[in-house]
Amino acid sequence: xxxxxxxxxxxxxxxxxxxxxxxxxxxxxxxxxxxxxxxxxxxxxxxxxxxxxxxxxxxxxxxxxxxxxxxxxxxxxxxxxxxxxxxxxxxxxxxxxxxxxxxxxxxxxxxxxxxxxxxxxxxxxxxxxxxxxxxxxxxxxxxxxxxxxxxxxxxxxxxxxxxxxxxxxxxxxxxxxxxxxxxxxxxxxxxxxxxxxxxxxxxxxxxxxxxxxxxxxxxxxxxxxxxxxxxxxxxxxxxxxxxxxxxxxxxxxxxxxxxxxxxxxxxxxxxxxxxxxxxxxxxxxxxxxxxxxxxxxxxxxxxxxxxxxxxxxxxxxxxxxxxxxxxxxxxxxxxxxxxxxxxxxxxxxxxxxxxxxxxxxxxxxxxxxxxxxxxxxxxxxxxxxxxxxxxxxxxxxxxxxxxxxxxxxxxxxxxxxxxxxxxxxxxxxxxxxxxxxxxxxxxxxxxxxxxxxxxxxxxxxxxxxxxxxxxxxxxxxxxxxxxxxxxxxxxxxxxxxxxxxxxxxxxxxxxxxxxxxxxxxxxxxxxxxxxxxxxxxxxxxxxxxxxxxxxxxxxxxxxxxxxxxxxxxxxxxxxxxxxxxxxxxxxxxxxxxxxxxxxxxxxxxxxxxxxxxxxxxxxxxxxxxxxxxxxxxxxxxxxxxxxxxxxxxxxxxxxxxxxxxxxxxxxxxxxxxxxxxxxxxxxxxxxxxxxxxxxxxxxxxxxxxxxxxxxxxxxxxxxxxxxxxxxxxxxxxxxxxxxxxxxxxxxxxxxxxxx
Length: 755
What we know:
Elements: H1 2-29, E1 35-36, H2 37-43, H3 49-64, E2 68-71, E3 75-78, E4 85-92, E5 98-101, E6 109-111, E7 124-132, E8 138-147, E9 153-159, E10 163-168, E11 177-180, E12 191-199, E13 208-217, H4 221-231, H5 240-247, H6 255-260, E14 262-263, E15 269-273, E16 282-290, E17 293-301, H7 303-306, H8 312-320, E18 324-325, E19 330-331, H9 336-342, E20 350-361, E21 366-377, E22 380-383, H10 384-391, H11 399-418, E23 428-433, E24 439-445, H12 449-470, E25 481-483, H13 489-500, H14 512-525, H15 531-541, E26 546-548, H16 572-585, H17 593-626, E27 633-641, E28 645-650, E29 656-660, E30 669-672, E31 677-680, E32 685-687, E33 691-700, E34 705-714, E35 721-723
Parallel strand pairs: 6-8, 14-21, 15-22
Antiparallel strand pairs: 1-3, 2-3, 4-5, 4-7, 5-6, 7-8, 9-10, 9-12, 10-11, 12-13, 15-16, 16-17, 17-20, 18-19, 20-21, 23-24, 25-26, 27-28, 27-33, 28-29, 30-31, 31-32, 33-34, 34-35
Helix pairs in contact: 2-3, 4-17, 11-12, 13-15
């Protein structure tokens, strides 16, 4: 009898273990789902009365262990602590939802606003995955905020009798931030500020903030430009200690400097720069050494002679990474003492340079080359417009020298394109500004031969420096390269499909063949109505350039070795290259590759941020330019298509605004990614490049946002006009749109950079 009781006890324990295992398997498979007691009893074999009692016992034990939690309505689910959890960075969108980016996971984890645990954009969080939606995308809830994002937010103060609320400009913060009026009694209503979130109590509708900087009244040009810089965490002024350190740098050229450097003071030397430039970091010298043979020097400001590694100025330059070029100002990487004085190659002044000197003939054969430190004297400063006039036949200073350099540059340019370089030419829109910085008009900057002259010799210096270091046989030398990968194959297939509708066939799929086919295509479309549409998509098909110590070549330029050597005043990687080259010329060992790669990543990231700030300043000025044009009609063309709307670029000004799909009431429109078109239920189709007529609805300066109403569209291929003004009654449930990107998340991966 005792044996039978023992056997029954063992069987009961075994059944309990089995039942517990089954229940845990079900709960783990759907961690966020709430199961009823009846469902769990049935699935674990507890259909009879004894089984239900046993199931109850198992659940009570699992609850006591903290593995399972009981919800309202007699339902059960896996406890948060038992769910699979991950650590990642929160990306907050305007709806209040959060996407958590986890390293190594292909898809971000979506978290509904009720499950965010008051997480904010950029916070490092722990997230529990509770389910996967029908598309297989994970969803979850944030269980812990590991580290708050220290970033400050730019916003406008709304000052009330007893409290202050900051309305944040960024769509990443969809709620106001509370600040105590007692702490900021002098703050005025409408002032732009930088605010940091210090606390967000449970149950509170908004976080509490601390104001770190008052930028000025909203709408003032300086205020708005400083606000853009602050939004991207870019400084708009130098700390006192950095300025003082720069002022202490001595600028005298010593006898030792003359003795240690190659002297170019007696060689014809000049600069060509934009008319409004203040810093001149490159100059060209030229002298004839034999019939049909020239010595050409590319002289670059010797910034690293004055700025030592890890000193105060160098540390600041690392943090900044690059100069930032907003519409109405330049925010330099280096203090003015260096950028505009000591290092600027101003006319009629002796300056220290790091130079690349080439002896070449009319066939572009390089007979000799030399790299090293020099002293120069610039004879003349040219604006691009002045040099262009000489190229086009006008008389002027150094005419023979400019024409010779231009002739060689055009040959180099032609040779580069024969080798597979890709050229995208597009006029760049610039603003005429009044004394207060307000845009009064738009003009277009076109790259002409004078620009190409400078570009080709800078490319030559950059390429040959990279080759000099990278092509050393039997020696592995650490080097900073500017690299550019081949186009993504999926993007290329999409591009090929798009141009077919215009009758262009593009069969190349990899290597130099793509570049040559792309250039042939650009030649074919030049001056045609579809040029803008095809060129725009072609640019988007290309990869982005970035800095790295691992060379893969520069696809867009068709260079197997390429670096940035020619602009150390405005780019930190150029300073890195100067130091590397100087070290190798002196016989130094190769520095640690890992530390250099870390600086490369930092520089690429800062470049991306600077580019975003520059685009934001352009967007602001575009919006400001359109404020007094609300209600007016303009011609334009479709420049981009998304799930939320149609972007239109105006023909006369290149100002871009958006027509929201939700506002297009003549049909039910959806974005067809495969066709790259917005298609209506009636068969109406809008695609890239279509000519349109729009009316300006809104120009919102706080959001840097321009909204258009679409009046009619003309199909680019058929010439058929579609009027958009006949509204149709449609059930709301029929409309399915993705939220405006200016509100919702955009999943963009990859590096961003420039040539």
